Amino acid sequence: AQKITQTQPGMFVQEKEAVTLDCTYDTSDQSYGLFWYKQPSSGEMIFLIYQGSYDEQNATEGRYSLNFQKARKSANLVISASQLGDSAMYFCAMREGSPSGYSTLTFGKGTMLLVSP
Amino acid sequence: EAGVVQSPRYKIIEKKQPVAFWCNPISGHNTLYWYRQNLGQGPELLIRYENEEAVDDSQLPKDRFSAERLKGVDSTLKIQPAELGDSAVYLCASSLSLAGGALASAEQFFGPGTRLTVL
Predict the structure, then answer these.
(1) Which of residues 44-83 of A touch B (CB under 8 A)?
(2) Which of A48, A66, A102 to mutate to test the interface with B (most CBs of B within 10 A)?
(3) CA-CA distance, A77 to A109, in Å (whole number)?
(4) Residue B9: closest C-alpha in chain A
(5) pLDDT mean across residues, chain A
(6) CA A106: distance to chain centroid?
(7) Most C-beta atoms within 10 A of its C-beta, which of A34, B10, B12, B84?
(8) Is A7 in contact with A107 (CB distance < 8 Å)?
(9) For the residues B41-58, what does the mean pLDDT come to?
(10) pLDDT-derived band of residue A98, with 50, 70 and 90 as boundaries?
């Protein structure tokens, strides 16, 4: 079974509108972390936001917020007031816990976001 | 502070040729990762190092791929011989240690990647 599922291959949004990118995850660990990365056409992976499994509040970083619903195992990224520069691939990723430490990030397949003027 | 450095940025080779990629992580980062990213997909881990030790190489095709991190700093990933299906972007990343007592939030910083094309 996939550990990270991103069901939206592509999303379109108009500039200044908000958009939600979906992510569901699968883990039996109690301690884990969820990440979102942005990958523009230039190829670099840019860290956006992090949510820990024990965090009670949803994470926010500027225009990015993470809608964390633990019982549903979802960690959706919300981008408010979209900008043209937000056009990129967006990846959800998870790091699981273990007695010896944490695992490497496991990535979803990504969602391509296109922002139109 | 310098980020993760990778070279070369692009490489075109013919199948059956060898190729090597180099990565220098962020100073102080004990953990180094090599990922492969196929077109339209997310990165997939090939190998992870904690200092000099490879702690997760279960996804590394060991018949043709090899990696080393001799002094626990920079690392080299090699493919010999390359196949057509190896065409991808090879990403290197680094982070603070993920060993016992680590934080789940330890951010992974990625290099710009090496785009490999095998003809």
Answers:
(1) 44-45, 47, 50, 52-53
(2) A102
(3) 15
(4) A43
(5) 92
(6) 12
(7) A34
(8) no
(9) 91
(10) low
pLDDT of B115 reads: 96
Task: Look at residue A66 and give its three-state secondary structure.
Answer: strand
Confidence of residue A1 (pLDDT cuts 50, 70, 90): low
* A95 close contact with B: CB closer than 8 A: yes
A40 reaches B (C-beta below 8 A): no
Total beta-carbon pairs less than 8 A apart between chain A and chain B: 70
Reading the block at residue B117, the tokens are 């094309």
Buried b (16+ CB within 10 A) or exposed e, B64-92: ebbbebeeebebebebeebeeebbbbbbb
Contacts with B45 from chain A: Cβ below 8 Å: 104-106
* Cα A11 to Cα A19: distance, rounded to the nearest angstrom: 8
Say yes or no for a CB contact (<8 Å) between A50 and B105: yes
Beta strands A111-116; A10-14: pairing state: parallel
Q: What share of chain A is helix, strand, coil (3-state, %, to 5)?
A: 5, 55, 45
Among A4, A91, A101, whose Cβ lies nearest the Cβ of B102? A101
| pLDDT bucket at A99, cuts 50 / 70 / 90 | low
Q: Considering only CB atoms, which chain B residues are within 8 Å of A47? A: 107-109
